[in-house]
Structures are given as structure tokens and as C-alpha cells.
Design goal:
By secondary structure, the protein is α/β, with parallel strands linked by helices. It has eight helices and seven strands, in the order E-H-E-H-E-H-E-H-E-H-H-E-H-H-E. Strands 3-2-1-4-5-6-7 form a seven-stranded parallel sheet, sandwiched between helices.
């Protein structure tokens, strides 16, 4: 029996990349998985089929987590079909390389809404269930850009930096309820989003290698299983940023 057996985990943006790897890893650790997706239903259903083929339990649920009504429908569906989520992995997000002068107010606000406000909305919706269970894990996907500024642009860096503050506040306020909150800040990971990163940026990684989504997933499982790690930012960047 794993520490996560029969726990219900919601992974947002789980139809590909890091979210997909985390969903599969949590399922392997025994959790029941709600695979959230925005538009790629075929990919989400495929992931659920992979989990079920190995004896796990999984549910694909469409929702735009930047919209309050969608979030409420998402969590209500999971509560009805699987039970209240006590593991939340806030992974959904967007990224587009833009120079500062091209970042408009509209773009900036959109990134805050999709990358940061979405995490607040989903967290607020599931926290009551975690409190009732006196057990919960909130795992937020940030980025090395929150710490270094990154190369994508101020719109992205600001949204990812806000995640760190949100995570620490939840950690402090929810610890007495048996709920931990942590952030993962990946560097360059081999995903669709990283495909366009210039070669010269890749050469700045001291480890001289790019990370894999599975390596991020390993950390997510650790954070889900551990009751004492809270309020932390776990860096997975090959030495490109060292605290």
C-alpha cells in the first residue's frame, strides 16, 4: 500500500508534457487521477486509458481553469465521480517568447489570469475538501524564470514569480490543517514548449543536459508523499540557478 493509495489527485493541464508525466507518476504511486485538459480530449482520454490498463483509476475532465465557472464544474465533477481531490497539481499554463516592448497590457493580464489566477481559483475550490480530510497536498508548477527573469519575457516571469508567493502563503496558513503547499521550478525541460529555445541558451546549463518531464514528475510524487516538506521551491534546472 502506497501513502497515496486511494487519494484523489487533480492534475491541471495534464494532456501533455510535464502534466502528463505527473499524472502517470501519481497513478503509479496509487492515486486516482483526474486528468484535466482544455482542448485536447483525445490526449487526455489516452492518458486515462494508460492508467486504467495498469489497474488504476482515471477520469478526463475538460475545463479552462482560468474561468471560475469552469473550475467549479471541474471540481464538482471530480467530487461526484472520484471523490474530493486531496492532491492538487497546478500545472496548466501558457508560454510565448516576446520581447518586453511587445508585451501589451492585455497580454500581461492574460498571462496572470492563466498562469497565476488559475492556481488560486482551483486551490480555493479544493481546500475545503482537504481541510475536511485533514490531509492535502498543493503542488504548483512555477519556473526558473521566476528566479532569473528567464528568456520568455516579463509577462511570463511575473506570472511564475507570483506562484512562489501564493505557495508560501498557503503553506503558512494551511499547515495546521495537515495540508502542505510547495512549488516546483523547472529549468529547461524537454517539452513542446521548450522546442523553440535557442541552442545558446541550452549551452548555459552547467549540467550540459536538458531535463525530462519524468524527472519533474518524480519530485511531484515526493512532495505528495511527504508530510514535512512545505513552503519550499524545488529547483530542477541542472545547476542553472542555485540558491
Amino acid at each position: 500500500m502506497s501513502a497515496l493509495t486511494s487519494r484523489v489527485a487533480l492534475v491541471t493541464g495534464a494532456s501533455r508534457g510535464i502534466g502528463k508525466s505527473i499524472a502517470l507518476a501519481l497513478a503509479s504511486a496509487g492515486a486516482d487521477i483526474a486528468v484535466n485538459y482544455n482542448s485536447n480530449s483525445a490526449a487526455a482520454k489516452s492518458i486515462c486509458e494508460q492508467i486504467r490498463a495498469k489497474g488504476g483509476n482515471a477520469l478526463p475532465v475538460q475545463a479552462d481553469v482560468s474561468k471560475t465557472q469552469d473550475v467549479d464544474r471541474l471540481v464538482s465533477t471530480i467530487e461526484r465521480e472520484l471523490g474530493p481531490p486531496t492532491i492538487l497539481v497546478n500545472n496548466a499554463g501558457i508560454a510565448e517568447l516576446l520581447p518586453a516592448e511587445k508585451v501589451t497590457e492585455e497580454i500581461f493580464e492574460r498571462y496572470l489570469r492563466v498562469n497565476l489566477t488559475s492556481m488560486f481559483l482551483v486551490s480555493q475550490r479544493v481546500i475545503p475538501g482537504m481541510r475536511a480530510a485533514h490531509w492535502g497536498r498543493i503542488i504548483n508548477l512555477s519556473s526558473i524564470a521566476a528566479q532569473t527573469g528567464g528568456i520568455i519575457g516579463p509577462h511570463y516571469a511575473a506570472s511564475k514569480a507570483g506562484i512562489l508567493g501564493l505557495t508560501r502563503s498557503y503553506a503558512l496558513q494551511l499547515a495546521k490543517d495537515g495540508i502542505t503547499a510547495n512549488a516546483i521550478a523547472p529549468g529547461l525541460i524537454e517539452t513542446d514548449m521548450a522546442a523553440g529555445v535557442p541552442t545558446d541558451v541550452r549551452k548555459t546549463i552547467p549540467a550540459e543536459m536538458v531535463g525530462s518531464p519524468d524527472e519533474v514528475a518524480q519530485v511531484a510524487v515526493l512532495l505528495a508523499e511527504n508530510k514535512m516538506i512545505t513552503g519550499q521551491t524545488i529547483n530542477i534546472n541542472g545547476g542553472r540557478y542555485i540558491t
